[in-house]
Amino acid sequence: MSNQQPFAATPRRKGWPTLVVVLVSLIYAVVVYIGDGNGPHAFIDYDGYYSYDIAHDFLEAPFTGDLDKPAYRFQRILYPLIARLLSLGQPALIPWALIVLSFIAIGLGTWLMEAFLIDLGVSRWYALAYGLYGGQLLGLRTSVNEPLTHMLLVAAMLAWAREKRWLAIIVFGLAGLTKETALIFAVAYVLSAALQQDWRWMFRLGFSVLPWLVLQVVLWAWLGETGFGATESFFWIPLGGWLVAARYNFSAFLLVSLIVVPMSIIPALISIYLSGRSLAKKNYHPFVISLFLNAAFILFLPSPTFVESSAMIRITQGLALSLLLFGALVQSSRVLNYSFLWIFANVLHVKGSGRPFSLRAGR
What we know:
The chain is mostly helical. It has one domain (about 10-350). The protein has 18 helices and no strands. Helix 1 (about 15-35) packs antiparallel against helix 5 and helix 9 (about 165-180) runs parallel beside helix 12 (about 210-225). The longest helix is centred in the C-terminal third of the chain and has 31 residues, at about 250-280.
């Protein structure tokens, strides 16, 4: 790891990375809107259909037959719920609400990341690695949850770092209602407090998981199942899900591996090494633990996730966020610069499609 000091931030550059991200996102959205010809519905694609269905039908959505796994989809309630509120329940405005919400989340998340990086003593320009990560434009293009999820995560961690701890706990709870994988970060903070024997805040941080748990009880009482119970089974052998994918079609497996290995698997293995080494030195900072947990999460993913590039872009976003903050924490220009490579995941948006490659779909 390089000990070279990351290039310094300067006051006159304040806000420029956010402006770059906003402009790129806006240009991308305009190109998609004009090129697709379906108006705002051009941005309802892939798993974004479920966000739209919930925002449109709300409490009736589980019974329309449009949700493949009603409890699983409904546990990610915050994004479609906010869109429904923004649209005042008007069906014609719901697609626009989803687009605007994703757009705001990308811009605001980048702005918060700028502030976070400055607090950590590195250049705000590394916020581009967050704002232009492939999952952000994928989220904007398809109306999935990730832009809002990660904006809330950055807000929660920044609030914690600035000693606004109860606010952080509340925002962690909201992030968990946007997508369940956000709870990996909340758990990292719980474990960090436990390992540092800060029992009071360990207990208090547990409240960040409470909204998600309450929602699971509600879903079980309402729909007869929890969102957690509808997930794919994880492999207990590291990378077993990726290796088993070869049974579908070996040549296609090799092709999808050209995407998954450099984008997700290699970064996960490197992150396990970096975070493991820090943990061995008794560095129990939440960034270290979140890096370890997000990397380990990828190693045990089920096979259906590994064979879909869009799913891997979304899943890997938590790792990318963790690695960026870890690099800032340890002041490693090598780690920080590596984070920029994830921007190239945007090349997977073939013809604006939210599903550029799926081994299961045979393309």
